[in-house]
């Protein structure tokens, strides 16, 4: 198979034509003065997140978490951002230690996270080591969740094969009964993690493809950050 055959195995097809007819960044987008950015990425992330919320971006706390699978192949999924340590550069999320991502992080405690806010054409990318919080922190975080979220957490067995939706409904009903009897119940595997970023990139899209990219790198010894612009 030639390179052109690989790229167009049966012609562009309807999906390819649809994508070509749907231009990227074809809207008014905010400017980004990288020279005026703060010294650390946490403060800038907080400002961009607030702008996304103000603009009505749906699920602005949704971030793609990429980990290294036990087979060495990258794995990714969307998780909810729970907090940001603006001073230290830590991005907080939660997961079950028994889930695929929990097992992957136990094997290799490194990850990357990415978020994209379409209304602003803004993307944030970060990568670094991952650290699990103490059990009492995880328990406190879980107990602050909505009842529906806690029921889902108590069902557990995430990513295991499910024979039928009726099986899940039965498990959810049992979790509801347990939560009613034990309001402070916490799943044993519930874990809060922090991704301590060594690199954070802020990407501001531009309709004319003059995208602005600003990368923060943690300085040697972890004291402060170095900033640099990147070519689009």
TrEMBL record:
Keywords: Flavoprotein, FMN, Oxidoreductase
Domain Pyridoxamine 5'-phosphate oxidase N-terminal: 51-175
InterPro entries the record matches: Pyridox_Oxase, Pyridox_Oxase_N, Pyridoxamine_oxidase_dimer_C, Split_barrel_FMN-bd
Entry GO MF terms: pyridoxamine phosphate oxidase activity
Requisite cofactors: FMN
Domain Pyridoxine 5'-phosphate oxidase dimerisation C-terminal per the UniProt entry, residue ranges: 192-232
Statement: the UniProt record of this protein carries the keyword Glycoprotein: no
Family designation: Belongs to the pyridoxamine 5'-phosphate oxidase family.
Protein name per its UniProtKB record: Pyridoxal 5'-phosphate synthase
């Amino acid at each position: 198979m030639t390179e052109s055959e690989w790229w167009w195995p049966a012609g562009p097809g309807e999906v390819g034509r649809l994508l070509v007819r749907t231009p990227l960044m074809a809207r008014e987008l905010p400017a980004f003065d990288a020279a005026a950015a703060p010294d650390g990425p946490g403060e800038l992330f907080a400002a961009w997140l607030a702008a996304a919320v103000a603009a009505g971006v749906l699920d602005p706390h949704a971030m793609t978490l990429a980990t290294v699978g036990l087979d060495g192949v990258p794995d990714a999924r969307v998780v909810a951002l729970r907090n940001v340590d603006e001073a230290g550069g830590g991005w907080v999320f939660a997961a079950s230690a028994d889930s695929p991502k929990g097992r992957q992080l136990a094997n290799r405690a490194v990850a990357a996270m990415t978020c994209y806010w379409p209304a602003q054409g803004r993307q944030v990318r970060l990568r670094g080591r991952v650290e699990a919080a103490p059990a009492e922190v995880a328990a406190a975080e879980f107990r602050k969740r909505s009842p529906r979220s806690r029921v889902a957490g108590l069902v557990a067995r995430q990513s295991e094969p499910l024979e039928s939706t009726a099986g899940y409904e039965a498990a959810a009903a049992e979790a509801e009964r347990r939560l009613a009897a034990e309001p402070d119940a916490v799943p044993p595997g519930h874990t809060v993690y922090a991704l301590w970023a060594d690199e954070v990139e802020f990407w501001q899209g531009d309709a004319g493809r003059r995208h602005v990219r600003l990368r923060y790198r943690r300085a040697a010894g972890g004291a402060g950050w170095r900033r640099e612009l990147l070519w689009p």
